[in-house]
Amino acid sequence: MRVEALCSDVVMFVGEAVESVATAFIDGDNVLLVDSLGSAEDADGLRHVLCHEMGKTVRMIACTHFMSDHIAGLSRFPGALVMAHRHFRHAFLMQNRPVAAFYREPDLVLDNMALRWGRHQLRFLYNPGKTMDHFSVDVPTADLACVGDNIVGNIVYLSRADPALQRAAIGRIREFGRSRVVGGHIGAFDAPVLDNALHYLARLQALVVQLRTQAPPADAAARIAAIRIEDCLAPRVAPTAFEREWHGNNLEAIVAQSIFALDAALAAQEKAA
Fold it and tell me: What is the pTM for the complete model shown?
């Protein structure tokens, strides 16, 4: 597990399982966690570092969204209050690989909320995108925003999501004006990562719509599966191994779930008119 101090009282943890991220906001001996990693082993490591090595107590865990690869630590901190958006069950039930052992009912269910934690003001803002329960955590005092899976590095993950909602969610995050962004996977990034994710989404959509409108369905599926990530990334952005892997997952989801099929149909209607 990678441990990185983002500032004197904010520490980011990146687990081995799907590079899931947890962010610890520290107030004296007390910790507020945003997300809690993606495996039991990573969650145990998180607890060891925070509770045994640092001598802290986790008092609260805020879930940016209620998918199993971000809530593994809920049961590792039984004394902590858990907060999530009111659509948390929708997100848990619609995921591809739910892990019932990680599930824990939230103690606090919210839409929007502001919380003072030590020197930081955390704004929990409902921001549906990748899932309908997503919220972003805007932290002006640390000049960062925790955004969950509304981005995955310089790309987005499309499975079971509405691309239009994802685009709007990233736009709202941009409006925060923070210089750093903590994603749900991989780690922390400079603010231009948001523009890179939007570029990837727009470019991928354009390529898929073009293929769906110009090729027979059978040919289109094969050609969609062959779209290169390099043809979708913003200029001067080199893909990481993780982004390359999840681009492949996107292509599988696009074919299996008919993502962008509506956009292609609307484009064909407009062309015919």
Answer: 0.96
